[in-house]
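Render this sequence as a predicted structure.
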Amino acid sequence: MSRFSARTSFLILPGALLAALLPTIACGNSKAAKADAPQAMPVKVQTAKAQKVNDTTDYVATLKSRDSAVVMPQVEGIITQIFVHSGEQVASGVPMMQIDPAKQQATVKSQEDARAAQVAQVKWAQQNYDRVSGLANAGVVSKQDLDQARATLDAAQAQLHSLDAQVSEQQVQLHYYKVVAPRTGIVGDVPVRVGDRVLTTTTLTTVDRPGSLEAYIYVPIEKSAQLKMNLPVQIVDASGSPLATSRVTFISPQVDTATQTVLVKAQIPNSNDLLRTAQFIRARVVWGSQEKPVVPVVAVSRIGGLYFAFVAESDQKGGYVVHQKPLQIGQIVGNDYVVLDGVKPGDKVVVSGTQFLVDGVPVVPQESSS
């Protein structure tokens, strides 16, 4: 063999070896690529469905009795007796408190004595007039004397009528020193004590008649344009369960300058006696209802104060991948969130294994029964 032939054989051998190895290398790369491709993860999904939900807002309201009377004295003085206790049932006209009447009794006695003296004066004037009248008929006295006697009698009678009115007024005033129940009901708190001096502006107690209450709801001015008569109102407890239902019966035409709110009232039935006067409660105003998608609470995660959910969407290859969608959520209805934005009806929302998902991962959706 020549030198040239030996060198050619030496060069051809590695080329042939490389050609023989190429299919093996290509096959190995294909298997590696297949091994590196992410496998589709099976996940449970629920299809978001539109549901009729109420558009509501909760406010802190105050309950006030529509049959509550504030008891205040009509005279000033020192309280000498208190006949009732807080929570006691009283009938209309029953004495509740006694204000020291000694000074008024003295005034009444003085007026009655003055009246008695005037009665005697009228009696004398009448007798004098009768005597002068007889003498005038006999021609013994002049017509002027008769007129004088008549004027004296008239003045005495007028003074007696005035004293009668004053005595009656002072006797009525004396009745005010005994404070009585203005109506039948339950006595409220009694903040005064025996020995206290009270004025006509002092609150002695209240008398509440069991029955309906009125919710005072203060709605921000931003919502005032949506206010209208007969809007539904719900009184709810701490868990959101309704205690009573009603409707708006009054909308103030004025805005509170201090709080920039509008006063709204709603009559609240209280047949089961669960609510109390002056109680702070949660009043839910129902502005209306609309169709909104709902998603299970377990499908929603909260990150940095924002709400997210994974939604399975079809890709170009006929499979599904998940995408993390930011949500704007509303109230909770049962075990579901009302979604205001971020999910639409028909979307497949992932309800299990969300902690293992990242955006863009292929999945195999499996419809959940609940």
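Summary. Residues 1-22, 30-35 have pLDDT under 50 and may be disordered. The radius of gyration is 47 Å.
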